[in-house]
Amino acid sequence: MTGGGRAGRPRPGRDIDLYSTPTGTRAVGNPVRRSILAALREREYTFEELVVLAGRAKSTVSVHLQDLATAGVIGSRPDPEDSRRKIFFLTGDLVASVSPEERVVDDLAAYAGMYRPGSGDPNAFYRLAFRTIRVALMQEGVLLDPLLSRAGERIGEELYPAVADPDTGAFCANIARFWEEHRLGRIEVAETEPLVLLVYDCFECVDLPVTGKPACAFDSGILRALFSRHYHRPAEAVETRCYSMGSDHCRFEIVVEGGGEPCDGTGMLEGK
């Protein structure tokens, strides 16, 4: 069993990670515990491996693991190669992080904008609501990327039948057409090996504050689900450029486990 999310070394300080568990959400603020959980988001670990990773005494790591297990954040099972050893794993996923250092101090009104009735865009109000909630959370240092990514995956699973095509070029064209029809942005295929998609006027981030970091976790989740279904094996949509990084577009590189065939063409894909 493996956990969700991505591993990463948490910063010390007042940062808090929120994890889902079978009985509810749990907050984890201790830096050692956050480091252990960050590692378990990547793969399962034995007790001995976690001791080395944490850089603490066995007794200290044991207490942390017991507390995390009691809270329902992690579970364990016997090592099939040595029943005297335990293998630890996450029972849920990273939901969000709260970091005072990541707070956006700009005025919310600068990004929320105004809703203009009669604009002719039926989705304008919903984009405004999404953006306002996102920026309000960013102002408090609440980072919802893990949750948004999983929500995007669920949407991608639902969306796949509407855009599916065995031909990769036609599949990309269907995605681009869906994005334009629903005013989500304009998609271009920039490269084919590896497959690279550019998104202009991205609904998720075009009006977000510039933080220097990618912000399209929701889009990434949708694309991950779509291309995983298309290639019949795990795929990632890695965002390397974003409006929130100061770029004039978002750039997603589609990385398929074991490789995958490229799209059949380049340039802008328009609905026909």
From TrEMBL:
A family per Pfam: V4R
Alphabetized InterPro entries for the sequence: ArsR-like_HTH (IPR011991), HTH_ArsR_DNA-bd_dom (IPR001845), V4R (IPR004096)
Domain 4-vinyl reductase 4VR: 194-256
HTH arsR-type domain residues: 23-113
CDD domains for this protein: HTH_ARSR (cd00090)
Chain residue ranges for the region called Disordered: 1-24
Full protein name: V4R domain protein
Taxonomic source organism: Methanoculleus chikugoensis
Taxonomic placement: Archaea, Methanobacteriati, Methanobacteriota, Stenosarchaea group, Methanomicrobia
